[in-house]
Amino acid sequence: MYNAERTKACHALVTEEAVKETLKADKGAEAQLTSWRIEDFTKLGDNYASVVTSVVVGFTREGTESQTSYVVKINPCHGFQNMEKATNIGFVKETEFYGKLLPQLNSALEEAGLKPLCFPAYYYSYLELGKELFFLEDLRQRGYKMFDRRKGLDVAHASLVLKELAKLHAASLLLQKKNPEYFKGTHLHMDWANAFNDAVDVGMMFGGYLDNAVTMLENIGGYGGVIKWIQSIKPNIREIFEKELEPSKYHVLCHGDPWNNNLLFRYNEGGIPEEVMLVDLQLNHRVSFGNDLNYLLYTSLEGDVRKHNLNTFLETYRGQFNAVMEAGGGEVRLSETEVLEEFRNKNVIGAIFSMMTVSFVLMDPQSMEGMEEPEEKDLNKAMALVKEMTLKMINTNPLIRPRLLSMFDEFVECGLVPK
Fold it and tell me: Deepest of 169, 184, 232, 364, by most Cβ within 10 A of its Cβ?
């Protein structure tokens, strides 16, 4: 949770020099800064691994006064010393995506006669340990906004995201074909399995959320097989993540964290979503496309929407992926069987991240007000606090149980786990 002092510390990392460099990158060297101020716009529950705010900028160019705004992501100033390196890796990975990978991915798409990927424009970054920040386009100026994460994506919203993920995945293969060595030397090998440099016990980080799911199932009854399955994967979480990094024919550049909070939509006059922007790339990595599909469909959709439209969703993804590959002269084509099998093969990823994120996805922001952080800057104590909060929410938030149960019921039905 972010108290006033912590927010103040984060804001202090935004400097006038950074604002000037951002303005120059966006509007050109002739633009002269006249004023700037930080203007928060996010709510409780919107930010976790970083602080996201905006900077409103006044400037003159060619004698004309104007105003614009930028979104800035800032080091969260959480005070956990053993997490500073991992936090830095997240910022390095995201700025590497925007500054190095995205231009090349878009170049590959342009050569294929396709439109660029839907990400905000990137202007400036500062990556000194403990003081990280970077500036992006403020997509609110183009009408993009966040969907209510507690509702779960409907078919129209989910289909837009699946098409954009397919385009990202396929573009990475086109880039790889164009330059087989390009991804070497990047940080795409860094993910949950190794980004923490043993500063954090990944098994413990995720294990608490799995324990909460087990407690819920024990209270409900009738899910003995699911409980045993959860308990069987708990000691092996790091190994599961490490295995996902092993190269395979399905490896692509994945977003890594495609849940509701990291998706912005633009709507037509009738309220129909027309475009999606993907944001928050600090977990981008090269793994099977099945990881992104599972992450999205099990963290951000209600069970009935996913179950009744799963074949449509997978075919939407496959159609877009194959269309991009064909346009770019790529060799890979995905069959219906391959997509379904790879999706099911990675269901364990969907399960792990669903159990971890469900409380964040479905929490009522008002429930976070007044919550205090541990006085000691001890990450284990902070994680224990989150586990306790999540367990309470399972019993008090009416949205959580059906979201998790629908997933477990689906896994039982498809034969992944016994009931």
Answer: 169
For the sheet with 32-39, list strands across it. 32-39, 51-61, 64-74, 133-137, 122-126
118 closest CA partner among 277, 324, 296 = 277
Q: pTM surpassing 0.90?
A: yes
Phi, psi of 136 (to 5 degrees): -130, 165
Cα 156 to Cα 268: distance, rounded to the nearest angstrom: 13
3-class DSSP state of 39? strand
Biggest CA–CA distance in the chain, Å, is 72
Instruction: Give the start-to-end residue ranges of the domains of the chain.
Output: 4-414
- Residue 325: in which H helix or E strand, if any? helix 303-327
- CA dist 407 and 413 (Å) reads 10
**Paired strand residues for 61:** 64
The answer to whether 336 touches 314, Cβ cutoff 8 Å, is yes
Q: Do residues 225 and 415 make contact, with C-beta atoms less than 8 angstroms apart?
A: no
- What is the number of helices (H) and of strands (E) in the chain? 14, 10
**DSSP symbol at 115:** P
User: Mapping DSSP to helix (H, G, I), strand (E, B) and coil, where does residue 51 land?
Assistant: strand
Give me 65's structure tokens: 């006064």
The 10s digit of each residue's pLDDT in 97-125 is: 999 999 999 999 999 999 999 999 999 99
Condensed to tens digits (0 to 9), the pLDDT of residues 170-179 reads: 999 999 999 9
- Report the C-alpha gap between 238 and 26 in whole angstroms: 41
Quick check: 171 and 109 in contact, CB under 8 A?
Answer: yes
